[in-house]
Request: fold
Amino acid sequence: RAALDPDSPLGAATALASLQSANHEVGTIQPVEEVAALCRERGVPLHVDAAQSIGRTPLPRGWDLLTASARKWGGPAGVGVLVVRTGTRWRSPWPEDEHESGRGAGPVSLPLVLAAAASLEAAEQERSAEARRVAELTTRLRAEVAQRVPDVEVLGPDEPGGRLPHLVAFSCLYVAGEALLTALDRAGFAVSSGSSCSSSALTPSHVLEAMGVLTHGNVRVSLHAGVTQADIDRFLDVLPPVVADLRRTAGAESL
Reply:
């Protein structure tokens, strides 16, 4: 499941706790508010990485600092967001100058910032309806991938409320992730494999290894607003023969 145990102890010397709002590999939603309550009891500030969830699910409460990337909610690439809650002690790691009361090193691109804000506002207005729409698609993907492809492990929580609505991850036995990624790309599907933070390396994900699940032949599918039922139909039609062909080429067809 890749979910954090909210009762995990904080060390006596802990100066800052950092937690993803949802796991980037398999979509598991993390117990941010429970962890935040524990941090408050210990006087430890909590940073939340909301890159995967912002614009997709309601923001959790209780954090002191929050970071996100505009491109994740459909905004411009190259714009990052750092939110510091009022009363939280924070000092910029960059050299101070006259910008943003010493909190920023140099000027920022105002058009990009405005575009990021406008796109987030639009994403939030459509969030509930879009989350329901893509959750239906990912629920179908999870069920039919497991049904149509032998020796596949679908990852993350089965219950829709425990995972991100737009993300599906699964692993195929006897298939190399790089080969599967390339074959799906040729068929017109841009998916990811390996670790979400270094997908170009195509190395086994340390998150999946820690979960004790299948790490090879891993595919991570992230649905955007333009994905339709027809796209899902075609993906489900293309995937089984692609996997079968790769297994046959690798001599694993009869294993």
In short: Residues 92 and 103 are 5 Å apart (CA to CA).
